[in-house]
Design brief:
about 110 residues, mainly alpha, 434 Repressor (Amino-terminal Domain), 2 domains, 5 helices, about 0% strand
């Protein structure tokens, strides 16, 4: 999709789309702008915000989380816990593999 088409679909200026694509201007983007771009790209409304915050983007169809919505906040916490658990499992696997190699070298 061209910048002009994305700008038209999202109702975001083409200059803003260009800045984001090229990462030329570093400024805080509103959640509304990121949501509009995400939707225009066919992604979850919080996709670009999650990427900006270094989180795994939610899948299309997952509920949109609102700060004042307790069930949504719990869903977000559960998602983060799953991600943390997965990362810890990966770290433990690497540590175990490293410990196994150290034992082989010592023996």
């Amino acid at each position: 999709m061209r910048q002009r088409e994305l700008a038209r679909r999202s109702h975001v200026s083409q200059a803003t789309v260009r800045e984001l694509q090229r990462n030329t201007v570093h400024r805080r983007r509103s959640a509304r702008t990121l949501e509009a771009l995400s939707l225009a790209l066919g992604w979850h409304p919080e996709h670009l915000l999650a990427v900006l915050e270094g989180r795994e983007p939610p899948a299309v169809g997952e509920p949109v989380l609102r700060e004042d919505d307790v069930p949504s906040r719990l869903t977000a916490i559960e998602r983060q816990l799953r991600q943390i658990t997965r990362q810890l499992d990966e770290m433990n696997a690497r540590l175990s593999a490293g410990a196994g190699r150290d034992g082989e070298q010592a023996g």
